[in-house]
Amino acid sequence: MAKLIVSDLDVKDKKVLIRVDFNVPIKDGVIGNDNRIVAALPTIQYVIDHGGKAILLSHLGRIKTKEDEEKLSLRPVAERLSELLKKPVTFIPETRGTELETAINDMKDGDVLVMENTRFEDLDGKKESGNDPELGKYWASLGDLFVNDAFGTAHRAHASNVGIASNMPQTAAGFLMEKEIKFLGDAVDDPKHPFVAILGGAKVSDKIGVISNLVPKADHILIGGGMTYTFYAAKGMSIGNSLVETDKIDLAKQIMAEAGDKLVLPVDSVVATEFNNDAPHKIVDGDIPDGYMALDIGPKTIAEFKDILKDAKTVVWNGPMGVFEMSNYAEGTLEVGKALGDLKDATTIIGGGDSTAAAVQLGIADKITHISTGGGASLEYLEGKTLPGIAAISDK
């Protein structure tokens, strides 16, 4: 079912509430990475170019104490947004009240206003993250239209997404949200074949839902990272001191039985005596020897994965192949990333988190069809779950 998009709305002379995802890294008032602010620009620009008043809401970090408030104000974000838009942006250090209401009522068409971090409302009884009905209703009363462009929080029902939406006649998706729904949705529901999923990371438990949902749809599911060794244990192989979730071994057996040949496990590993870049390390086939832990996939596995990937038409990648923040165990993740970057005629999707960091580090980000802005949200989408933030957007 197609969703209503911001470009379907008549925004002229309207107060347009836009839920953006400005949850950027900030230290001592300095923004470490402004990707998420840049990603929100097309939607904001559309509203102001078409004569709307853009009123922006976002959370930033988690607020548990008064001290958190001092560190996590959206003021630096509003200042950076002003630089990016090349126009003044009004910042209101409040999440409700007269100052905010007056500033919104004084806005002219094409103006932009950022209100304070929505999670400041969490200090007094988790009103934002608990989707307090009165708060959602209040925020909805500040605008005429609502646009949700925050995919990063789509898997959570908060007052600033679901709460506002439930008090508005209709809610539209912003362009970033539209892109996420399109690429992730097509990959899960209508992929071009061969469809290959690459799943890494430490824990099988984080990816069980994704594997189960993709088994009937994918042609190959390539497994890397620490979760490999729970599957090894399920096969009765020795795993040395490698990471293992003993309570998930039976589940791993079940997944292997369901997936059959589709599930491709590493055939060799880079192993080390301890979790340290400078520890003695070597490459071993199959079983992991006693006294060693596996920290990356080996060269034979890399070759096999590349061979499977070369014909792929749709690829979804979530999670590193090894401990890629340590140079001696980064090869698997980097080689898989390069193989994705080299694909010419395929839709390639990276699902947030560490895989995104790897793509940026490799300089292949511009060769990937779509890099998701929401790690947790993209995982739940790939699991086939209904995301409350997306469900609250009106259908066309």
Features:
six-stranded parallel β-sheet, Rossmann fold, alpha/beta, 16% strand, single chain, 2 domains, 396 residues, 17 strands
CATH superfamily of the largest domain, by name, is: Phosphoglycerate kinase, N-terminal domain
User: How many beta-strand segments?
Assistant: 17
Q: What would you say the CATH architecture of the largest domain is? A: 3-Layer(aba) Sandwich
Number of domains: 2
CATH class of the largest domain: Alpha Beta
Neighbour order of strands in the largest sheet:
5-6-4-1-7-8
Query: Roughly how many Å apart are the termini?
Result: 8 Å
Put simply, the count of helices is 15
Q: How is the biggest beta sheet arranged?
A: 6 strands, parallel
Estimated radius of gyration: 23 Å
Model description:
The protein contains 15 helices and 17 strands. It is α/β, with parallel strands linked by helices and 396 residues long. Strands 5-6-4-1-7-8 form a six-stranded parallel beta sheet, with helices on both faces. The model has no long low-confidence stretch (mean pLDDT 93). Its EC number is 2.7.2.3. Substrate binds at residues 21-23, 36, 59-62, 119, 156. It is found in: Cytoplasm. This is Phosphoglycerate kinase.
